[in-house]
Amino acid sequence: MTAPTSTPPRAAVPVDYAPLRAHRRNRALIQVGCVLISLFMAVPIYLIAVASFSTREGLNQFPQPLWPKNFGTETMATFLQSTGIVGGLINSLYVGVGTLAFSSLIGAPAGYAIARFAFRGKDPYQLFLLFTRALPIVVLSVPLAGIFLQVGIYDSPLAVILLHTALALPTTILITSSVFLAVPVDAEEAARIFGCTPVGAFVRVVLPLALPGMAAASIFTFVMSWNEVLGATILTFSQRTLPAQVLSSLSDSPLAFRFAGGLVLVIPALIFIALMRKYLLNMWGTTIR
């Protein structure tokens, strides 16, 4: 009888951690990059906010502290009580919402047609849309001012809405066409088989699926309309939007007035983007949370 032979212990296989370390390093670099980009955008807004809520004496100090030591609402109150500011703010909201409605009503059907139908000249048409954005705003504004004088809508928010709609339509059409292209045609055809009309299939099936992309287009439209200055200055005189009103009085304004105006110009656009954030997350996925 022979004694059982013992098997030698198997040598441990070395684990290569290099890919895992590279993945962690790349992820850390991406996060650092995101933080730096966020700081690059957030720090100027914070400094403007600090200056807007500082007293006149605190605003003249050098260097400025990162946290306001002389907090006060005198600067902001003076800005809001200035002539034309509240009216300009109302006109800006009216023009932004009107531009958003007009560009959506015109741009969404055009984007749907580009996504669903093949027609002659489709590609040149999409390229031609971009030519509108290539023209300087003054080239569009000056002829439009003459036309608006003839039809009697010069110096009104409607004139600025029409100009901003013309500027926003190329972006709205191209974004919505790419969004509608991603919606499955089978879902729309299934809705029509079950009795929906073409309009009903669009409203009940296509539109809910395209809503996040249309929200992204609306953000671009509202922010563009809110920040546009030159066209609003040319087309209005007494019914100016807030950026045009601030620009017209900028050269004669004190430094505190400029900081307060900058903060008031930024806040509504940030609020609108925050309200539309959930639609952007639905479109881009949850990886950017």
From TrEMBL:
Protein's UniProt keywords contain DNA damage: no
PROSITE patterns: ABC_TM1 (PS50928)
UniProt keyword list: Cell membrane, Membrane, Transmembrane, Transmembrane helix, Transport
InterPro entries tied to this protein: BP-dep_ABC_trans_perm, MetI-like, MetI-like_sf
Domain ABC transmembrane type-1, first and last residues per copy: 89-276
UniProt keyword Transmembrane helix present: yes
GO biological-process terms attached to the record: transmembrane transport
Membrane topology, as annotated: Multi-pass membrane protein
Transmembrane segments: 28-53, 93-115, 127-149, 161-185, 205-226, 255-275
Gene Ontology CC entries for this record: plasma membrane
UniProt-annotated location(s): Cell membrane
Family recorded in the similarity comment: Belongs to the binding-protein-dependent transport system permease family.
Designated name of the protein: Carbohydrate ABC transporter permease
